[in-house]
């Protein structure tokens, strides 16, 4: 085939991410041998996903956020799902996929939703549509009007999320030093102030959304980065459970059974 005939074929999976040739691997134009031993994992994630580089303070923010998101214990549905799968005879990759696939709009999606909410507030503020507190009040009112939770605030388990304060301090420091603009931080704190009287503080999804917003991460990509972080915990739990020797471990320990609420069963 001529080069003209081959062009549409080789363009089928065209990518700006990785160049592969015999004896060559390059990520975004950088030979892999130049990255090995010189570039950290967080920088490599950012390079592949965005094509850019992270300044040290911004790298520190991203890494801290990923660390904060790695796990939330075996009661988290994604972790529990992976652990159950690991006792059913599947491989570690299938157990991990099982857990990752549970991360949806309800369990795992609040960060994405919060990034979008804060982004709307930041855009409105930059357009002169109101001050931070008024914009926060309006967002909360809109969520309540449709019976929705305000994403990134409140936690069913933690009265105060232990991950909030250390991440918030890092963002505040980065904003004070000019490493990030700080508008997503101001928007998030305005939402928290508006919810303070109801005892609904910021949670990990809220502070993570602030970080991702400050780094310019799109809402859906923010969920992807959360999934990437949480996959570490999913791997750890799936591996631990696979070593336990337990088989077909269900959601309730034996001899407990789920309550039955259907029609009466005839006595025999």
UniProtKB/TrEMBL annotation:
Its EC number is 2.3.3.16. Keywords: Lyase, Transferase. Pathway: Carbohydrate metabolism; tricarboxylic acid cycle. InterPro entries: Citrate_synth-like_lrg_a-sub, Citrate_synth-like_sm_a-sub, Citrate_synthase, Citrate_synthase_sf. It is an enzyme of class 2 (transferase). One of its GO terms (molecular function) is citryl-CoA lyase activity. SUPFAM superfamilies: Citrate synthase. Belongs to the citrate synthase family. This is citrate synthase (unknown stereospecificity). It comes from Microbacterium galbum.
